[in-house]
Write a structure and sequence with these properties.
The chain has 144 residues and is mostly helical.
Length: 144
């Protein structure tokens, strides 16, 4: 009887530790931990910087500038919701669509077009990463 109580207490402690470890692994880290949220936000900050750099093209028409403004607005809408802890796929899809229009229809220098094309690929990869929840591993976050 004297050994039974410590054994039961040890078993309960081990069970509680295993349950806690499982809970922390399934915890949605990008919104619970600022470092992981920053890591997931980095690709979108890069897109914003590339948009700003590409919009400085001196031969851009009025329609080109309008497409840049719309893309910035949609990216801002997605990022503002994302920073509040809400991932909204349709907002990301709108931002991707706007940037696709810029890449396909704007007069850009080849370097900016390549950077934006790279950003599109990264945004699509991120969307696939978030949509395939069973394959997510937030221990490492989104890796570009």
């Amino acid at each position: 009887m004297r050994r039974l109580i410590p054994t039961i207490l040890l078993g309960c402690a081990l069970f509680a530790r295993a349950a806690h470890a499982q809970y922390t692994q399934s915890y949605d880290r990008p919104y619970g931990d600022r470092d992981y949220a920053r890591q997931d936000r980095a690709p979108f900050d890069r897109v914003r910087a590339d948009l700003d750099r590409a919009s400085g093209y001196p031969y851009a028409s009025r329609e080109d500038r309008k497409r840049f403004d719309e893309a910035r607005r949609d990216l801002f809408d997605f990022q503002s919701r994302f920073e509040q802890g809400r991932y909204e796929r349709h907002e990301l899809d709108k931002a991707i669509g706007r940037i696709e229009k810029i890449v396909n229809h704007n007069s850009l220098d080849p370097r900016s077009r390549g950077a934006l094309d790279d950003d599109l690929r990264t945004m699509r990869d991120y969307r696939a990463f978030r949509d395939h929840k069973e394959y997510r591993d937030y221990g490492y976050g989104f890796q570009r």
